[in-house]
């Protein structure tokens, strides 16, 4: 089921399935990638309680075996609509027997989308509803059409950051999805922008861990684009499909995919948030259509 929210200039469709964005339109222009299995069938999945992958799909979380596919359990289990209005909607997922088969913890995940003007705010709130500690990471995975305007091509776009980047990025292994932190790549170093080229993504995503910037803008030569502001997130991925898909994903994550130097202990992974019983934590990022 899709739910429409809007402001005077922006129309947003959200899917109850996966509690994810499905359409972002301004002045009749679709900004969100609409999915194409030839390149990537997704659009904007929610990643929880992992981002990326676990080693061999398994880990030990506070002594419990957890076994999850890429990006975790939230996106493949049901959400309900908690509340909605003209310009907002909140989805909720409560842990149940199915989620606990993969991730044996009690939680409630609320995802709220709010549109004001040309800006859509995504807010994730995680509640520990159990009697023991809850470990997790969380992240967004929105992909945007590139190009956005007629007469442009992928190479007419760049991703521009609000600060000069001073360290090299990481890349996940294209087969395993694991990250070797001993290998860094000089895709962007001592500059604040990356010119988009399809060959950049043959080696998978660019992972900017501990990123100095807190805003990234995908912008074309016509001036049309998308800005993502991610104050609550320590990492940003820039990704497109290896086979030349006409999209760029800008992905704010609290953690990163499992690294080769990490053990099987889930709670020791980079970027992990651990909530005590009855605690909660919220994380926001904003998408502005330009």
The general outline is: globular
Order of helices and strands: EEEEEEEEEHEEEEEEEEEEEEEE
Mean pLDDT, rounded to whole units?
Answer: 96
Proportion in helices: under 10%
> Regions with pLDDT < 50 over 5+ consecutive residues?
none
Overall structural class, as computed from helix and strand content, comes to mainly beta
Number of strands: 23
Number of helices, counting only DSSP H or I runs of 4 residues or more: 1
Termini separation comes to 28 Å
Alpha carbon gyration radius: 18 Å
Describe the strand arrangement of the main beta sheet, using strand numbers.
Answer: 8-9-10-11-23-19-18-15-16
Q: Approximately how much beta-strand content do the residues carry?
A: 35-45%
Q: Which sheet architecture does the biggest sheet show?
A: 9 strands, antiparallel
Offer a few descriptive terms:
single chain, 290 residues, mainly beta, 4-stranded antiparallel sheet, 23 strands
Report what the structure shows.
- By secondary structure, the chain is mostly beta strands.
- The chain is built from 1 helix and 23 strands.
- The chain has one helix spanning 97-102; strands at residues 2-6, 10-15, 20-26, 29-30, 46-47, 58-61, 64-67, 80-84, 88-94, 108-116, 119-127, 134-136, 139-140, 143-145, 158-165, 191-195, 206-208, 215-219, 225-229, 235-239, 247-253, 273-275, 280-289.
- Strands 8-9-10-11-23-19-18-15-16 form a 9-stranded antiparallel sheet, with no helix packed on it. A 4-stranded antiparallel sheet has the order 1-2-3-4, with no helix packed on it. Strands 14-21-20-17 form a 4-stranded antiparallel sheet, with no helix packed on it.
- The protein is globular.
């Amino acid at each position: 089921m899709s739910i429409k929210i809007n402001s005077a200039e922006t129309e947003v469709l959200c899917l109850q399935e996966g509690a994810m964005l499905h359409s972002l339109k301004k002045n009749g222009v679709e900004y969100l990638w609409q999915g194409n299995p030839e390149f990537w069938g997704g659009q904007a999945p929610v990643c929880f309680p992992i981002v990326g992958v676990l080693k061999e799909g398994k880990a030990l979380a506070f002594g419990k075996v957890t076994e999850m596919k890429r990006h975790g359990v939230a996106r493949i289990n049901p959400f309900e609509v908690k509340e909605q209005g003209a310009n907002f909607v909140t989805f909720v997922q409560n842990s149940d027997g199915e989620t606990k088969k993969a991730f044996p913890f009690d939680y409630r995940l609320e995802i709220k989308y709010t549109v004001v003007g040309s800006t859509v705010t995504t807010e994730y709130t995680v509640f520990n509803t159990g009697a023991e500690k809850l470990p997790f990471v969380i992240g967004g995975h929105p992909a945007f059409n590139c190009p956005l305007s007629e007469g442009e091509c992928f190479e007419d776009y760049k991703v521009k950051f609000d600060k000069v980047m001073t360290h090299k990025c990481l890349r996940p292994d294209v087969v395993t999805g694991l990250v070797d932190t001993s290998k860094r790549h000089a895709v962007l170093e001592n500059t604040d922008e990356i010119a988009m080229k399809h060959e950049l993504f043959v080696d998978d995503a660019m992972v900017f861990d501990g990123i100095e910037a807190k805003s990234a803008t995908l912008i074309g030569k016509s001036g049309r684009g998308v800005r993502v502001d991610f104050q609550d997130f320590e990492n940003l991925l820039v990704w497109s499909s290896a086979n030349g898909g006409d999209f760029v994903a800008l992905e704010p994550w609290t953690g990163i995919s499992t690294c080769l130097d990490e053990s099987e202990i889930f709670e020791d992974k980079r970027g992990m948030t651990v909530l005590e019983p009855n605690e909660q934590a919220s994380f926001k990022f904003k998408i502005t259509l330009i």
